[in-house]
Amino acid sequence: MGESLGGQVAIVTGASGALGTSVVISLLAAGATVAGIDRMGAKTEDQAQTIRRFAANLTDPDEARRAIANVANKFGKIDILVHVMGAFAGGAPVVETDDATWNKMIHINLDAAFYVLRAVVPLMRAAGHGRIIAIGSRQAVQPAANVGAYSASKAALVSLVQTVALENKDKNIRANLILPGTMDTAANRAAMPKADFEKWVKTPNVADLVVMLAGEVGTEITGAAIPVYGAEG
Fold first, then answer.
1. Which of 56, 162, 76 is CA-nearest to residue 126?
2. What is the DSSP string of the chain?
């Protein structure tokens, strides 16, 4: 990539997932110190000494606040937030979507982002610097049938992050979203075994875009929702 993030501290939520893992690898390669936050916490297979993992249920406002405070106390600052955390559920039209599915999508895809942003942005404002990159979905802007709760939660995430971008330009904080199409992960391959995997979005490519937005290029971009649709586009 060529981006240098040496000396910068990055938080990655959902760091243990397929995309989160790729983002961590790319950030470390660019020289950043990485704090991974997810429900699993430390993983025994971690070999990089420059990543510290924190366990938290980010859909709980108090846990989210504590996790961000712990990272800030450990490293003294937060330069970059990459909000990867998310979940997918679908399979029914809106009128047949049950409360549990709706609430799960809103809690995981929207509420958690709100709680994390509410904790991180004041620290970035105090420092006069920050880069926020959230992972949305193509369906945030191009909804599909039978995934209404998921699409709505991701569309709301776009609005939330773009609002944060508008509110914090004055303190050199840039906030953007990446909207991937179907991602080439083990879970998606298992769910759609007959699909053409070559057309799907590769997680390392999304991770490289994250690093670009976190670096110098990100100085010029804020409030963007960037489509990354792969060959399906």
1. 76
2. -----TT-EEEEETTTSHHHHHHHHHHHHTT-EEEEEESS---TT---TTEEEEE--TTSHHHHHHHHHHHHHHHS---EEEE--------S-GGG--HHHHHHHHIIIIIHHHHHHHHHHHHHHHHT-EEEEEE--GGGTS--TT-HHHHHHHHHHHHHHHHHHHHTGGGTEEEEEEEE-SB--HHHHHH-TTS-GGGSBPHHHHHHHHHHHHSGGGGG--S-EEEE-GGG-
pTM (2 decimals)?
A: 0.94
End-to-end CA distance of the chain: 24
Pair 132, 161: CB distance under 8 Å: yes
Domain 9-232 has CATH 3.40.50.720: yes
Residue 104, number of CB atoms within 10 A of its CB: 18
CA 88 to chain centre: 14
Q: Closest Cα partner for 39 from 103, 72, 86? A: 86
Q: Report yes or no: 161 and 113 within 8 Å, Cβ to Cβ.
A: yes
Residues 141 and 225 sit within 8 Å (Cβ to Cβ): yes
Domain boundaries, the chain: 9-232
Residue range 115-146, pLDDT digits in tens: 999 999 999 999 999 999 999 999 999 999 99
